[in-house]
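Figure 6 in text form: structure in, sequence out.
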């Protein structure tokens, strides 16, 4: 499965930890000025999960991603840019998704 991450200039150990969890492809969009000026941000077709790094993305971008993810039934995780913030949210998301199946 692929994951689409929005926000943060660097991912640090986040990408390594996601790969250890089985995410084959990590697509990262920094979420800086080029997105702020236009609302043309799209979730890649292969993305099975979206992670929004809330401390690096404005509300308009988050709302745009949220709407697109909802229309495509792609789960979204909102967290700060640290593995200790992302890991528990991923666990909750995976349990919710597995319970729905």
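Output sequence:
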């Amino acid at each position: 499965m692929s994951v689409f991450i929005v926000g943060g200039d660097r991912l640090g150990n986040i990408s390594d930890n996601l790969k250890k969890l089985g995410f084959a492809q990590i697509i990262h969009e920094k979420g800086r000025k080029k997105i702020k000026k236009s609302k043309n941000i799209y979730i890649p077709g292969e993305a099975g999960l979206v992670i929004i790094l809330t401390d690096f993305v404005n509300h308009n971008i988050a709302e745009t991603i949220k709407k697109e993810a909802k229309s495509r039934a792609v789960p979204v995780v909102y967290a700060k840019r640290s593995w200790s913030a992302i890991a528990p949210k991923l666990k909750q998301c995976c349990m919710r998704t597995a319970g729905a199946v």
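Caption detail: DSSP finds four helices and four strands in the chain.
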